[in-house]
Amino acid sequence: MNKLILGDNQEILRSLETESVDLIYLDPPFFSNRNYEVIWGDEGEVRSFQDRWSGGIDHYIAWLKERVIELHRILKPTGSIFLHCDWHADAYIRVFILDKVFGEENFRNEIIWCYSTGGRATKFYPKKHDILFWYSKSKKYNFYYNNVAVERDTSTMHEPILYDSKGKPYQRNIKNGKEYKYYLDKGVLPNDWWTDIQALNPSAKERIGYPTQKPEALLERIILCASNEGDIVLDPFVGGGTTVAVADKLKRHWMGIDQSVQAVKVSELRLQKQQDLFSKPFTVQLHKYDYDTLRYSDAFEFETWIIQQYDGTPNTKQRGDKGIDGKTRDGVPIQVKRSDNVGRNVVDNFVSASKRFDKSLFDKNSKNNKAIGYIIAFSFGKGAIQEVARLKNQDNLIIQLITVEEIIPIAKKPKLTVNFEDLGLDNKKLREIEFTATGKSEAGIEFYAWDFNYNGSEGFKAQIMIDKKGKQTHKFKTGDYQIAVKVVDNEGLENLEVIKLKVNGEVKS
Q1: Using one digit for the tens of pLDDT, what is the confidence trace for 84-125?
Q2: Which of 273, 285, 267, 270 is nearest to 40 (CA)?
Q3: CA–CA distance, 234 with 222 (Å, rounded to integer)
Q4: Cβ neighbours of residue 386 under 8 Å, at least 6 residues apart?
Q5: How many CB atoms lie within 10 A of CB 418?
Q6: Distance between CA 453 and CA 473 in Å, rounded?
Q7: Which burial class, exposed, middle or buried, applies to 371 when counting CB atoms under 10 A from its CB (0-12, 13-18, 19+)?
Q8: Residue 141 carries which DSSP code?
Q9: Cα torsion for 101, 192, 194, 268, to the nearest 10°?
């Protein structure tokens, strides 16, 4: 389930299973009619911005409502949705979208998130808050009090605090003429106005360079209150990736969607940076897939993945599968070859394997002129193609040869070269080096990312996530270093180059 998806969230949401998600957080673009909403500037985001602004508030509400309708469908009966907005359209969103789709009876809270950052005002009170509308799917919704309760402030209490035999604090409470113990050790829920979570300042450690990035503490409170470990959290406007990053840390399953290549790739870098040995794997679904990455990936993982993309069921056994890697929905066997130019011998062996797999189905499909099996590969040689034709004409056996590119679109990853120049020692005797990365891709280059302390066993941990120019200057003490740079193109495909440096009076590559 842990997945980043590049694409129009409306189309992707329509493909998701009904009542399959536990919690939804969305921070859609605000109705501010300002070009600063275009943050990344890539084609997908600009196109989405133009779609929203083709016609006033009514058009914006219609654009958002059709997505909220899909979100309501995929939310579990016990699930919740938190919609983040501001004063530009909050009334319209509540009345014309959330009340209509979720029902007024399922309104839970209007949460005011207060902050002090941003501009000043002299002719009206400064607008220093956002709004979070919380609606549940039904009245039987999940809410985890203990996950979000904060320590109770007892300093302003008028009644005396007493302690029971176990040392638990309480106060006396008289109700209906009877005395009850009102225990104080459970903590108390925050009010529906949140002043204890500040917006990110420019130098915040978690800041990645995304202008409207929300603090992790905000998403942590939302995720903790309405989901449990193992639940599924969805963010259909993933932006800078805060929701999925926090969900991953809190051991939730998650899915993030965005129409911007940069949003998806920066979120991927952010997740990679925080992952450790205990982190769950995740996938990134792009418009196109890199040939080299697929062609030289783990064979069993590729078999499983490509069969799923073909809408089949993969074989869970890595050994003893008798040459069959999966089957279609109709039970017809599938074999996957993670190679090019597949030859005739593969076809010959597959015929025997298909007959052993299910002889009655084999005979039935042969009699009814249906495929007895499917072979998936990157390409097929002349011998395989000729043998498939002979089997069909002479033996009435139909085998479908399917190339990977017929299932998913394939492209070549961008090329990357990196040069550096020694700028000498600074006044602290640190060696200053300027790096220049140059990427080339038919799709166009989107951005570069840098890891100045690269460790191959730990993977790429970006220190600079968004570099539009491909130029960085870094200072080094004496020692050995590995510097890695990634280039990402407009399709989301990437390439990695690693430079090894020995800094000891001189620089060597």
Answers
A1: 999 999 999 999 999 999 999 999 999 999 998 877 888 999
A2: 267
A3: 12
A4: 344
A5: 20
A6: 14
A7: middle
A8: -
A9: -30
Q: Are 256 and 238 in contact (CB under 8 A)?
A: yes
Check residue 50 and give its pLDDT: 61
Taking the CB of residue 124, how many other CB atoms lie within 10 A of it? 6
Contacts of 198 (CB under 8 A, 6+ apart): 115, 116, 117, 215
Task: Please tell me the number of Cα atoms within 13 Å of 471 on its side-chain side.
Answer: 3
**H or E stretch including 51?**
helix 43-52
Residue 36 scores a pLDDT above 80: no
Q: Sheet holding 431-440: strands in order across? A: 415-425, 431-440, 471-476
Domain identity same for 428 and 327? no
**Distance between CA atoms of 28 and 360, rounded to whole angstroms?**
54
**108 and 23 belong to one structural domain:** yes
Burial class (CB in 10 A: 0-12, 13-18, 19+), 278: exposed
The one-character DSSP state at 106 is G
- Could you tell me which residues come within 8 angstroms of residue 178 by beta carbon, excluding any fewer than 6 positions away? none
Task: Write down the pLDDT at residue 509.
Answer: 44
Domain co-membership, 367 together with 325: yes
Residues 398 and 298 placed together within one structural domain of the fold: yes
**Which of 141, 170, 188 is where one domain is finished?**
188
Asked which of 266, 285, 304 is the last residue of a domain, the reply is 285
The residue count of the chain comes to: 509
pLDDT digits (tens, 9 = 90+) for 43-76: 766 666 565 666 688 988 999 999 999 999 999 9
Instruction: Report CA torsion sign: 75, 77, 82, 88.
Output: positive
User: How far is it, in rounded angstroms, from Cα 288 to Cα 279?
Assistant: 26
Tell me the DSSP string of 194-258: E-SSPPPPTT-TT--S-TTPPPHHHHHHHHHHH--TT-EEEESS-TTSHHHHHHHHTT-EEEEEE
The first and second tokens of residue 17, run together, are 């299973």
Structure tokens at 127: 């607008």
Compute the distance between CA of residue 162 and CA of residue 182 in angstroms, rounded to an integer. Answer: 10
Residue 342 belongs to what domain range? 292-407
Instruction: For residue range 290-328, list pLDDT tens digits in order.
Output: 888 899 988 888 999 999 999 999 987 766 566 899 999
**Which segments of 322-431 does DSSP mark as H helices, in order?**
344-357, 359-367, 382-395, 404-407
Are 440 and 493 in contact by the 8 Å Cβ rule? The answer is no
User: How far, in Å, CA of 114 to CA of 118, rounded?
Assistant: 12
Average pLDDT along the chain: 91
Fill in the amino acid letter for 486.
Answer: K
- CA distances 454 to 283, 439, 480, 485, Å, are 22, 20, 11, 9
- Helix (H) or strand (E) run with residue 384 in it: helix 382-395
pTM: 0.81
Same domain, 35 and 109: yes
- Top pLDDT among 409 and 151 is at 409
